[in-house]
Amino acid sequence: MPYLPMIYVAWADGALSLEEITEIRSRLAASGGIPADSWVILESWLHPEHPPTSVELAELRDRIRELASELPDAERRSLASLGAAMARRRSAEGSRWESASSLRTLEAVEELLGVLGGEATRALLAPEASPAPPSPPEIPEPSFPVETLRTYLAGPHAEIRARVLALITRHEFVVPVGASTRERREHVLERLQDLADAGLGRVAQPETFGGEGNVPGSIALFETLALGDLSLLVKYGVQFGLFGGSVQQLGTEVHHERWLSSIGSLDLPGCYAMTEMDHGSNVRELQTRVRYLPDEDQFEVHTPHRRARKDWIGNAALHGRMATVFGQLEVDGEEHGVHAFMVPIRDDEGALLPGITIEDCGEKIGLHGVDNGRLSFDRVRIPRDHLLDRFGTVTEEGRYESPINSPGRRFFTMLGTLVTGRISIGAAAISASKTALSIALRYSSQRRQFGPSGEDEVPILDYLTQQRLLLPRLAECYALHFTTQALIDDYGASTDDEALRSRVEVEAAALKALASRHAVDTIQSSREACGGRGYLAENRFGELRDDTDVFTTFEGANVVLLQLVARGLLSRYREEMGDLSLRGMVRVLADRAGTEVHRRNPVRSRRSAEDHLRDPETHLDAMQFREQRLLQSVARRLKSRIDDGMDSFHAMNECQDHLVSLARAHAERRVLEEFRRAVEAAPDPEVTGVLTRLMELWALSRLEEDRAWFLETGYMEGSQSRAIRSLVNQLCGELKDDAVALTEGFGIPPELLRAPAARLPDDRD
Amino acid sequence: MPYLPMIYVAWADGALSLEEITEIRSRLAASGGIPADSWVILESWLHPEHPPTSVELAELRDRIRELASELPDAERRSLASLGAAMARRRSAEGSRWESASSLRTLEAVEELLGVLGGEATRALLAPEASPAPPSPPEIPEPSFPVETLRTYLAGPHAEIRARVLALITRHEFVVPVGASTRERREHVLERLQDLADAGLGRVAQPETFGGEGNVPGSIALFETLALGDLSLLVKYGVQFGLFGGSVQQLGTEVHHERWLSSIGSLDLPGCYAMTEMDHGSNVRELQTRVRYLPDEDQFEVHTPHRRARKDWIGNAALHGRMATVFGQLEVDGEEHGVHAFMVPIRDDEGALLPGITIEDCGEKIGLHGVDNGRLSFDRVRIPRDHLLDRFGTVTEEGRYESPINSPGRRFFTMLGTLVTGRISIGAAAISASKTALSIALRYSSQRRQFGPSGEDEVPILDYLTQQRLLLPRLAECYALHFTTQALIDDYGASTDDEALRSRVEVEAAALKALASRHAVDTIQSSREACGGRGYLAENRFGELRDDTDVFTTFEGANVVLLQLVARGLLSRYREEMGDLSLRGMVRVLADRAGTEVHRRNPVRSRRSAEDHLRDPETHLDAMQFREQRLLQSVARRLKSRIDDGMDSFHAMNECQDHLVSLARAHAERRVLEEFRRAVEAAPDPEVTGVLTRLMELWALSRLEEDRAWFLETGYMEGSQSRAIRSLVNQLCGELKDDAVALTEGFGIPPELLRAPAARLPDDRD
Ligand SMILES: Cc1cc2nc3c(=O)[nH]c(=O)nc-3n(C[C@H](O)[C@H](O)[C@H](O)COP(=O)(O)OP(=O)(O)OC[C@H]3O[C@@H](n4cnc5c(N)ncnc54)[C@H](O)[C@@H]3O)c2cc1C
Ligand SMILES: Cc1cc2nc3c(=O)[nH]c(=O)nc-3n(C[C@H](O)[C@H](O)[C@H](O)COP(=O)(O)OP(=O)(O)OC[C@H]3O[C@@H](n4cnc5c(N)ncnc54)[C@H](O)[C@@H]3O)c2cc1C
Question: What ipTM was estimated for this complex?
Answer without folding.
Answer: 0.91
